[in-house]
Amino acid sequence: MRSQSSTRVMTSAAALAWALAFSVPGFAQAQDAPPAETDAAAQDEASEIVVTGIRQSLADAQSVKRNSAQVVDAISAEDIGKFPDKNIGEALQRVTGVQITRAAGEGQGVSIRGADPSLNRVEINGQTALSTVVGSSRAVEFRDLPVEFVSRVEVVKSATADMTEGGLGGTVRVITRRPFDSNKPFIAGSVQGIYGTLADKVDPKLALIASTLFNNDTMGILVSATYENRSLWYDQMRTTGWRQIDRDPATAGVQPLDLNGDGSGDFYPDIPRPVINRESTKRGAISGVFEWRPNSDFRAFLEGTYTRSKMTLDSQFLQLNTVQNVANGGVDPTRTTIGPDDTATSVTFIGSLAAPNGLAVSYRNILGTQNRNTFNSQAGFDWTMGRLTLQARAGYARSKAYNNEINATAAALGISSLTIDYDNDQQAPNITLPLDQTTSQGLNQLIVLRRPRYNDQEEFDGRLDAEFKPDGGFFTSLKAGIQKRVLTADSRYFDRSLTLNGYNGQTITNTYGTGVSSNVTLSTVPSAQLTQQIRDLVAANATLGDHDFFGNADLGYDGGIRRWLNLGMDVADAVGIPDPFVNPVPLDTWEVKDDNFAGYGQAAFAIEGGVRITGVAGLRVVDTRTTSDGFQVRAGTVTPVSFEGHYTEFLPSLNLKAELIPGKLQLRATATEVLARPSPAQLAPRFALDAVGLTGSRGNPGLEPYRARQYDLGIEFYPNRTGYLSATYFRKEIGSFIQNGSEAYVEPTTGVTYTVTVPVNGSSKVTINGAEVGGQYVLDFLPGALGNLGVIANYTYSKDSGYADRDVFTGGALSFPGLSRHSYNLSGFYEDSVFNARVSYNWRSKYLITSRGRGNNPEFGEAYGQWDASAGVNLNQNVSLFFEGVNLTNAVRAENANSIYRRTIIESFGRRFYAGVRARF
């Protein structure tokens, strides 16, 4: 095999990084460490790091996979501060069985073997990574954790008893660098510019990492920091839902409008709306770890990691209201065409009602900021006394998400007509309005509101583990431990609006004096006077935005509406942003507490003979007590409520490995039980309504966790230190499945009916069967420079059964949410001592997003594939240049309401390009 010249402890380009606050990443095997054979391999590898780029990265990842007692896939850094992708989520999409969700084109969350991101456990050096998702989830936001800190990421797909529970699909271990990874001091860094084609801006990113040993090399410290600005612009053509229309509202029941006469109701667009999203984000992170190793038998550490991001939002909507409570919903049959799947390909609505009812067009801007920050810290020690090793850990984790939402909306209510034409290659709505959307023509309502929400989570964690390694015999390791974790999640929500109604001359605000929102009239003037005031305010302060809508991608038609009124903060400030803190929302203010105590015992064993069989068997017992505190409103009186829950789970696990050819060919078999807890928002005694969508949601404090039994059977072949070929069959049986039911709710002050979703534990069992095939190989048998080529590829097939929710209209079966039946990754690379390059393609088939969206149709994410590429040049042993392109072909992401003719989202986020320099000294 060809090997390029290696450099010990090579780092990245020198840069000056801005630090935000104290903290630090930590111990690679701290919490939930794999069994003894994995620990030994990891220690051997960590004794001295020799970095040689892509090939060393593949060798490190292969070693983790081969030596682990569990089913594991790993991705390792190619150098200090150099990870294969610019985002942890985007790197994980290249692992078998993993698909990702994207936000503004960036990898945000990961689905493992079909499990939603909130059902997977994520750890930073063995400690819980908490969620910063607004609304309080368990899903982790991967965009805020810098890849420059990361040494390795592991996806653990089978469980052992010493692992902290909570990963229904799997556990993602983020392992950061440590001082004793290198026996020589170093400082490394990078400076890069990031260009997005939609924002048309170059954003900076700086990273710095430094480490040294001292006190006769018994103590070490490592610090790292990053800072970046990001301008994420992305355009979306949305149709919020597809609904059937009641042709005769005066008659009881629903008589669906059926213009094509086929006996089935037609589907018509509900709230079509193009959106220009602008997210300007500042991210910073700082990390540090201190270790003390006075001898080979003792290690103590203190570590922490702090991340912070501030996102300034400006999402510019043009949205249509097509709902009218009149015959045929106001549809003009002479100017409406019904196409495939009973879907309107073109429809004209005639305005039959005056303001505030009837047809409407609104210019809406969602403004404000989103702040996210996390803090992870832990201290502990490992102490080996002969054959006994004690490990102790104490940790504290915190996350804060603050969504300071400000809305400015100007509307023309009671307009004469709307025409929406979907007859184009992309099934995108081409909108025709009876007014000029670039002026204040027709406006008769202006609303400014502010709705701040605070979501905080914190977890206290302590554990003690003891491992004894017998001298010979059947058992190679006996391990037991206890763990205490207390998670608290809370939500505080405030809401106040100021509405100028030109059609009746009233200016109103809202109050929660009775516990629910009700209107208060502030003033009344002649309607013509207030209408003119609205139009003058908007005309003086609105703009037309900064670019043509969908200007760099195919919308399916030429022309159409590409610019419209952009209200922005200037309009909000001109009207006056109301103080929301006088209006706490009691039904969306709550706290949920998870108090978990776990104990386990496990044994590792080896059976010698013709074929060596090793394994780990264990049992984990988890006792969970939940407390959900909130408020209820009855007859205008707000009173506190509290609910308690309790369950005890027994989680057995068995992981077996048979070495058919030692070091070359091995079989795996596993059988484990796992669980994932509901999100705090699902457990909370909360109640929320969306006045735009006429939908709502509430929590259910009585929810029990998801439970699953899972099995693996696989074979792995390792021809050399960098290559492997593996195939795994897996089966996952999910019980106590949490699904959303729905109920009608009539708002008492307005009489408006809302469709409210509520999570419930279903009685059905969802079974997922699948297969994963993957491999990597350096083509070093080829002559000359061709021997520097290599390939990485994998494919995952998944098929589910038993999901209880059905298509409301057809009664047809639906797939498990988030599960793509097919997905694959393909990467080719070249690397020599001076130059390296990689080209990658990732693809997944369609998947269910929700079984019941707006209009009661199931909604699907359509198949999506993306090309990425990177290249680098080593100027010398200390300095290198790099370049990377993401979404090179400008792929567009789409969703639909169970038909490609009923598109709900068409999203363009453009291409991203990175260029920079790394240095190490």
Protein topology:
Blueprint (H helix, E strand, L loop, with lengths): L6 E2 L27 H11 L3 E2 L2 H14 L4 E5 L11 H5 L5 E6 L2 E7 L8 E4 L2 E2 L21 E7 L14 E6 L9 E11 L4 E14 L4 E25 L24 E28 L2 E24 L15 E2 L5 E7 L9 E26 L2 E26 L3 E5 L8 E3 L12 E24 L6 E19 L2 E6 L4 E6 L6 E7 L2 H15 L26 H8 L14 E18 L4 E23 L2 E25 L3 E12 L3 H4 L3 E4 L4 E4 L7 E12 L6 E12 L2 E9 L6 E9 L4 E13 L10 E13 L20 E10 L3 E10 L2 E4 L8 E3 L2 E11 L4 E8 L6 E4 L6 E6 L3 E9 L1
Parallel strand pairs: 6-9, 31-35
Antiparallel strand pairs: 1-2, 3-8, 4-5, 6-7, 8-9, 10-11, 10-46, 11-12, 12-13, 12-45, 13-14, 14-17, 15-16, 16-19, 17-18, 18-21, 19-20, 21-22, 21-23, 22-26, 23-24, 24-25, 26-27, 27-28, 28-29, 29-32, 30-31, 32-33, 33-36, 34-35, 36-37, 37-38, 38-39, 39-42, 40-41, 41-44, 42-43, 43-46, 44-45
